[in-house]
Amino acid sequence: MKTCFLLVAAVAAAAFASARCSPVQAAAAAPPPVTTIGATCQAAHDADSRVSASFCSTRLRDAFAPDTRFLADAAAAEGVSNANDARREIATAIQRHDEGDDQEDDPIYRRVLVRCEEFYGEIRERYDAARQAIAEQRYGDVEEELSSVPSTGRSCDDKFALTRGGSGASPFLQYCEDNTQIALLTIAITSLIK
């Protein structure tokens, strides 16, 4: 009972003190707004309905998020990581092909793999440039850097249609889909920076 009384007294004293200070003082005493990943992902979806809020939350769940700028950088870093993973998998496929371990004997197949590795190298460069733009607070440049990224990823997938007698499907389709989401996400989060 005594603890409850002390708690009520403390709350009342705080309310009385805050009522006596000016609105400017009260605003200065308020903590800064906290950036949450879920709220930012939802805001990114609201800014661009093509952005999946659940994809965003999943990909950025471990990001350091003191503000929107850090989340924009984390999204671009996810793009770098995705491009690196794609290039690593493509390099492995090229190696398997060269060693004869690959079942693929289509002569176009290896050329397509090499071109896809180049495409994902270009994509990585675009994400690196977007990260640099974010770091330098040139937020308008982020969309310019990333606008071609989804079509570059699709170019890789489209090249596989030329293989296997015209019935080839890309083994890297998930990288392309993730790449598109990450580019849209990075642009949308960057647009939220005040």
Layout of helices and strands, plus pairs?
Layout (H helix, E strand, L loop, with lengths): L1 H19 L2 H7 L7 H11 L5 H8 L7 H31 L8 H29 L4 H7 L2 H12 L12 H19 L3
Mean pLDDT across all amino acids:
82
Strand content: under 5%
Number of strands: 0
Oligomer: single chain
Low-confidence stretches: 1-33
Describe the structure.
The protein has 194 residues and is mainly alpha-helical. It has helices at 2-20, 23-29, 37-47, 53-60, 68-98, 107-135, 140-146, 149-160, 173-191. Helix 5 packs antiparallel against helix 9 and helix 6 runs antiparallel to helix 7. It is elongated and about 55 Å long. The model is unreliable at 1-33 (pLDDT under 50).
Please give a handful of descriptors for the protein shown.
74% helix, mainly alpha, 194 residues, 0% strand, single chain
Short précis:
This protein has 9 helices and no strands. It has 194 residues and is mainly alpha-helical.
